[in-house]
Amino acid sequence: MTAVEAIDAAATAPARSVPRNGWLVVAAKEFADHILSVRFFVLLIVLGLAAGIPLFLATERIHQLASQVSGAQAVFLALFIIGPQDVSIFGLDVSVQGFIGLAAPLLGIAFAFDAVNGERAQGTLPRLVAQPIHRDDVINGKFVASLAAITLVLLSVVLLIAGFGLLRLGIVPEWSEVLRLVVWFVVTVLYVALWLAFGMLLSVVIHRAATAALVGFGVWMGIAMFGRFLLTLLLGAIAPVTDSTAVERALGLYQLHAFVLRLLPTTLYSEASTVLLNPSLVGAPNSTPATLGQLAQAQQQIPTLLSLDQSLLLVWPHVVALVALTVICFAIGYIQFMRQEVRA
Amino acid sequence: MSAAAEPPIVAAGLTKRYGSLVAVDSLDLELRRGEIFGLLGQNGAGKTTTILMLLGLTEPTGGTARVLGLDPARDALRVKRQVGYLPDSVGFYGDLTGRQNLRYTARLNGLRGRDAEARIEEALGQVGLTHRGDDQAGTYSRGMLQRLGIADALIKDPEILILDEPTAAIDPIGVVEILQLLRDLVHERGVTVLLSSHLLTQVQSVCDRVGIFAAGRLIGLGTVPQLAAKFGNDTGQVEVTFEGEQAAGAAKRIKPVLEGIAGVERVDPATSPGEPWRLEVRPASAGRAVREAVLAAAARDGLGLTAIRSTEASLDDIYRAALRQAGLHRQAEATEPEGAVA
Predict the structure, then answer these.
(1) Which has the least CB within 10 A, B38, B93, B187, B286?
(2) Contacts A25 to B, Cβ<8 Å
């Protein structure tokens, strides 16, 4: 074929189609990378151990509990919320739920801290964005793939625990318990998504993957371990509650404290998680009654189990706050990524 | 409007500013279908920025670009579907094989299954990597990565190939192969090639036309002979070599003799004994007369002449001449914007 013929052929060739779901292609590749990556297996093992050990230690207590409360309600969920006595890590309760709450941010950051800066370092980013996909397909695809991989890890751990409960302890869940577990799982995934979005933001803003990882884990440790402590200290200094404080005022201050503490995603998640998995809780663990009347009411209440919809009502604001934080993190990272130059 | 009639790449007043820095300054450029166009300039001259604007990867501050009749800033996807791009210092996923890397690109271009595999095989074959296609890209040498990058750009069967420093990290034999490959592509498929480079002599042989880029401005445009005529100021070059042992002591004696010959504009002494002296001759047509005069003088004064020849202006020389001229222009213009602001 001569050059002229080739030119004619090219001119008459039909316009080439552009792939419509660029993010899906990116997500599929990233998901495959994650599943086969070393970090996936390491995290799977760590999380499995982290959930398995407290469960193993707690078996004894669950047996006791199950026999004490004949016809006990929500024993299945006890698998997730009861930890071994006399054992604590970092001063935290080591129930399965507590541990997953602790590990979720780790997962989120571990799967996202090198998402964009890794591509930059490898020199693949210019090549990737020169393909016929939108630039945001890159970041969206990566987010979805990481979330899917983490969901897979979490799901396998939760199913393992549930299976363990069914087989080893012979606990059969009721439908309402299964529903609670599903809702709790969804909230946990949302919580992971928040840290994933945060990790993604770091990977966009910080050009060195190692630095991004350090900053990410630093923030996680800061919030998980010292956040509550620091905020309490701060509140004590700004709005102290002493014995001489009038009761009405004290209640108001308590509410303020609860509100400020809920600015921490860890508080949001642990409250939501506890309420969802523990139907005997009638209020968010840190919530304080607004009036003396409510306080009196609460004290006179007969301990009962909350129905799922009531629990949902309690945690709805928490869920909304978690989603809002996720959206904020993701949006900042997204905008930064769209505005960044392709060149390093 | 037929697609064949329109030039594949047109830039009109294309400008990109980063704050006060002007990376590309009102670039006017038109590529012809099926040509190899070389964008030449030092690092930081604005070549890569121009390429990114043509691909819609960065938005121009001013002016317009049309690629295959489309505006890359608005129709980026359709432009990127038809334009193969090899970035400067291209990278691949090290834990994937070369073939897997290409497969990813194929998917991103909407190619799947047998179509994609056939395209991948063809592209690997064209760059001579078929036998290494199943090795991890992390084990590739820099030159192999560069070739894989070209294969990657070919996957989408592009109308236009934009290559940023395609020969930068490749050994001399590889360079010849790659330039041959580009020539074949233009011949067989009618691809239009835009390549940027700072290695001028390498590119000289393959480019139909070149544009000389300095400080964001296109200071020269045309074929190499055209540019030589424009920036050479009608000068020719003669290289004269003298016997090494004599040249060391005789340099002082040789220089006035050469300078005394009619038509010799400038004399660059040998950098070391045994190396040629370079004579700049004006007008270029006086080259023959100068050579004969050098011969006569050498015989008369016993200078120990060993070699004499006329050389063509190389792209390096043209580039330097163009820069020298543009340097004067730039100084004149540098004061302008400030005056305009005030």
Answers:
(1) B187
(2) 104, 107-108
